[in-house]
Amino acid sequence: MARLAGVSRATVSYVLNNTSAVRISEPTRRRVHEAARELGYVPHAAARSLRAGHSRMVLMPAPAVPVGPLYSRFLSELQSALGRLDYTVVQYGTVGRQGDEAARAWAELRPVAVLVPGTGIGPQGVAVLKRAGARAVVTLGPERVEGAHALLMDHEAVGHCVGAHLHARGRRRVGVVVPEEEGLEAFSRPRLAGVRQALRGTDASVTELPLAYTEQAAAELAARWAGSGLDAVFAYNDEYAMLLMRALQDEGLRVPEDVAVVGADDLMLGRLLRPRLTTVHIELPSGRELAELVDQAVRDPGAEPEVRKVLGAALVRRESS
Amino acid sequence: MARLAGVSRATVSYVLNNTSAVRISEPTRRRVHEAARELGYVPHAAARSLRAGHSRMVLMPAPAVPVGPLYSRFLSELQSALGRLDYTVVQYGTVGRQGDEAARAWAELRPVAVLVPGTGIGPQGVAVLKRAGARAVVTLGPERVEGAHALLMDHEAVGHCVGAHLHARGRRRVGVVVPEEEGLEAFSRPRLAGVRQALRGTDASVTELPLAYTEQAAAELAARWAGSGLDAVFAYNDEYAMLLMRALQDEGLRVPEDVAVVGADDLMLGRLLRPRLTTVHIELPSGRELAELVDQAVRDPGAEPEVRKVLGAALVRRESS
DNA sequence: TTGAAAGCGTTACCAC
DNA sequence: GTGGTAACGCTTTCAA
After folding, report:
1. Residue A174: its pLDDT value, please?
2. Closest residue to D5 measured CA to C1′
3. CA-CA distance, A294 to A286, in Å (whole number)?
């Protein structure tokens, strides 16, 4: 490299890293800096981490499906928090790879920590990553994975508080929307299960309602509504709730008199609908909190994997139920 | 490494990379594969790209602000398309760094191509990246950057077609919402400028309306509406349009009789509002198309930078204007 | 068919 | 203060 500053590579390294252990003469420093600028020199991250034997890279698989505003806010918060702790966050696009194959692809980058949302990894995958030098593997999902720290996101709780609420409001025939879009099962299944659990042992029934996110699908579902006898619906989230509520209203059904509609995620749009949408406010962990957990785990890789419940679900009653 | 398969490192490399130039005996292959599995061996990406002198990494800065459904769809499409061409897409979280500093940080990773949305890079940054071995730099933004391929996203066109539409509908006092949220200026400014341009030389006036994405801010704006004399508003996008339209309606104003409301992005929610929201349908380049452009550029780095207009804007008239 | 060795860009460690 | 040297893990060239 910039040996054409007339100095050795080691000297360059010292100057550019401001190594305090050795003193470099001012003129030399200047020459090095000058040469670096002139040549447009930038250090080679791969070489550096190869030599160092570790990096400060925190790897996250990039979500394959477009993800809601809630989660993307959380993501960018997390990124800046980790950035402040001097980690580099990298979202890695793992195309078609599944499970352990994906884990191996991630391991090739030798990240110091890996954050895996959903059910994208199993115990074997965790083991691969750890052998590859990852000092922390953190999952964000419905259940813990052997060997990894876990941030438990209990989406059943979301469904549960909706079920309990609807029952308390006297509803007995509850429909639950299950989106047909791919990649949402990880959330929709537990939400449905939560409703079921809340209503188990009561006189209320739960009906699963597959629904694609199109006006037509919603209209068809609404057209069948009268015959279904359902008096309430948990619409998966606020966006599906808006879609379905509109279709129900267009069909002449009154919300909430004929049918109660409940969304989830507490998005702005729920407040703007008429009737205002009852929803579930979801409290995700702050990016700062998760960043600190990662940092802890990296500093002390031997520690017992931490398991923490991080999803707060609170029903926000408005006018639609 | 796995020399404990009883063979040399070279042999391992051959086997695992399926190098066709040399023939390795079946038993040896087996032993290597077995040892690799047993040890949980995964190749070291840094070492590989260091030796090879290049990688297949396509780098994109991770958006710092939560980004709309339109753009995230485009992103994931692009990711899979590039994945199919055997590139690895990496979103790199560039925290606070600005301009050339950011470019230097990206260059450290020695990506084969860099995709930069917005105005995140200048000619110098492009030069740094190219010197660092990037064979293609592609910007997605309002204007081209010296030395880089450009996908021109002309958001002025969005504003322009709204301005023209409103004028044709007889509106003469047009408000344009400019979000107060950070990171949106890159879109809101050109959209405003487009409206101005469309109405320049006519008898219509354009008024800038700063608006935060809160109910209260919208209510305040709506309360001032009667005194403003505005008979139309371009609300930046469908979400701001929904917010503002609700506030206007709550204030007793009729849409579109008293005030026409136009959104943009053609989101589902616009179709669900009543009155149905007039909007601008935005056609982004397909991920496949962009992936091919990147691949082209990587294969032929000497070629003249390509400049392509990729943002199609078409007004979708519904009921709100 | 296999093994040995060089070298990619860094940095830590010793001599100078 | 400064400069040479080795080593990180891998691929490739060349020799056995």
Report:
1. 98
2. A10
3. 13
Classify B92 as helix, strand or coil.
strand
CB contact at 8 A, B286 and B82: no
pLDDT of residue B22: 67
Tell me the pairing of strands A205-211 and A149-152: unpaired
Can you tell me the distance from the alpha carbon of B140 to that of B293, in angstroms, rounded to the nearest whole number?
12
Backbone angles phi, psi at B67, to 5 degrees: -120, 150
How far is residue B71 from each of residues B66, B117, B226, measured CA to CA in Å?
10, 10, 35
Which residue, B264, B184, B177, is CA-closest to B217?
B177
3-state secondary structure of B303: coil
- Reported as type and span, the H/E element at residue A149 is strand A149-152
Residues 288-317/A with CB within 7 Å of nucleic chain C are none
pLDDT in tens, A71-81: 888 888 998 89
DSSP codes joined into one string, B179-239: E-STT-HHHHHHHHHHHHHHHTTSS-EEEEEEE-SSHHHHHHHHHTHHHHT--EEE-SSHH
- The structure tokens listed for A228 are 């279904």
Structure tokens at A75: 């993501």
Please identify among residues 76-105 of chain A the ones whose CB lies closer than 8 Å to any CB of chain B: 76, 79-80, 82-84, 88-93, 95-96, 104
Whether B317 shows a pLDDT value over 80: the answer reads yes
Q: What is the mean pLDDT of chain A?
A: 91
pLDDT for B95 beyond 80: no
Which region, left, alpha or beta, applies to residue B186 given φ > 0 means left and ψ of -120 to 50 means alpha?
alpha
Closest CA of chain A from B316, distance in Å? 17
The answer to whether B199 and B165 are in contact (CB under 8 A) is no
The H-assigned helical ranges of A8-154 are 9-17, 26-39, 45-52, 69-84, 99-107, 123-131
Over residues A151-183, the pLDDT tens digits come to 999 999 999 999 999 999 999 999 999 999 988
CA angle B301, B307, B313 (to 5 degrees): 140
Test A215 with B80 for CB contact under 8 angstroms.
Answer: no
Question: Interhelix angle for A238-250 vs A215-223, to 10°?
Answer: 50
Single out the residue of B120, B155, B158, B160 nearest to residue B139, CA to CA.
Answer: B120
Residue A51 has pLDDT above 60, yes or no: yes
The model carries a pTM of: 0.91
Does A109 lie at the interface with B, CB-CB under 8 angstroms?
yes
Only one residue has tokens 């809340």, namely: A198
pLDDT of residue A285: 87
Predicted pLDDT at A183: 84
Mean pLDDT of B131-148: 93
Q: What pairs with residue B91 in β-bridges?
A: A91, B60
CB contact burial A129-158 (16+ within 10 A = b; e otherwise): bbebbbbbbbbbbbebbebbbbbbbbbbbb
B191 in Cβ contact with B264 (< 8 Å): yes
Residue B296 — pLDDT band, cuts 50, 70, 90? Answer: very high
**B101 or A315, higher pLDDT:** A315
Q: Return the residue in A17, A41, A75, A91 with the most chain B beta carbons within 10 A, the one to mutate for interface testing.
A: A91
- Rounded CA-CA distance A273/A266 in Å is 12
